[in-house]
Amino acid sequence: MMKPRFLSYAVTLVAVAALTAPVVARAADPDWKAVEQALGKSGQMQAGDVFRIGMPRTDLTVTVKGVPVKAGFALGSYAAFKQIGDHAMVMGDLVLLDQEIPAVMSGLFAGGLEVTAVHNHLNEMSPHTMYMHYSGHGDAVQMARALRQALSASGTPLGGSAPPPASSTGPTLDAKAIEQALGRSGREVGAGVFQVTVPRAETITEMGQPLLPTMGVVTVMNFQPTSDGKAAITGDFVLIDKEVNAVAKTLRQHGVDVTAIHNHALMDTPRLFYMHFWANDDPVKLAQALKAALDQTNSRK
Q: Among 73, 62, 75, which Cα is nearest to 131's?
């Protein structure tokens, strides 16, 4: 039985189209070793395939209300990379002295990166320290190279061998008591600093792409032992608009200072606000205060 001519013709067209259609190759994952070499710092792959590189300002000696703060407590610059289809995205936060801001910002622009915020995180810092948030899309190695070039205008330690781990001798924290008061588990992030992170329950996106907790979109609560059995706390709550005043009111009722309220990104959905805080008191009392504030938010259980 002969096939209809129109069917044979249609099959021929499909075959020709398949042969002549351009082949779109999916971009390979970035060479993360090359990214490390370009930036001059080593990183780690984290949840959600986010490659995060920390760049703590270990070169700075900073006090807050006279309390010396450790780099892992409040001076942690970072870059979080994630491959998305045929390109990578990067976002992060840079800890800068006032005089470093103009040249670093110009360097970011020259390298094709965008600045999304510049502001304080804490008050009464000496020397005065600011925080510059940034983002970018493109080739991961090229963005790492651009970031390093921009940071060359600052004292951020990059390149060379890493310094030995800071000693955690001195006051210590009862981490179990903090975890029990907060109802959350945490981890030591170096030199005696204890950190608890809490993601939001809803999905956060930017231009349709998920913004993950490991990219910095997460509530962070840091504890640093001070003296007389006390601890300093800092970090930031990630909030939607209707939560801002409820959380601020709760923190103030518990004697915790609210030191800044602002954006970190430009096109996040839902629109997020970051609330930074500070106190220096009994660590369990402070953990209970943070727990009361967390209860005002749509945080993941």
A: 75
Please state the length of the chain.
Answer: 301
Q: What are 48's two structure tokens?
A: 């959600």
In one-letter notation, the amino acid at residue 45 is M
Q: Identify the bridge partners of residue 170 per DSSP, sorted by sequence position.
A: none
Q: Which residues contact 41 (CB under 8 A, 6 or more apart)?
A: 53, 54, 55, 158
Taking the C-alpha atoms of residue 142 and residue 159, their distance in angstroms, rounded to an integer, is: 16
End-to-end, the C-alpha distance of the chain in Å comes to: 67
3-state SS, residue 273: strand
The tens digit of pLDDT for each residue in 124-182 reads 999 999 999 999 999 999 999 999 999 999 999 998 655 555 555 678 899 999 999 99
Chain centroid to CA 272:
14
Residue 173 CB contacts under 8 Å (≥ 6 apart), including other chains: 192, 194, 223, 225, 231, 283
- Whether the Cβ atoms of residue 300 and residue 236 lie closer than 8 Å to each other: no
pLDDT digits (tens, 9 = 90+) for 35-57: 999 999 999 999 999 999 999 99
Alpha-carbon distance of 221 to 68, in angstroms, equals 18
pTM confidence score: 0.88
- Rounded to whole angstroms, how far apart are CA atoms 93 and 51? 15
Query: How is residue 198 written in tokens?
Result: 């809490």
Structural contact between residues 78 and 53, judged by C-beta atoms closer than 8 angstroms? yes
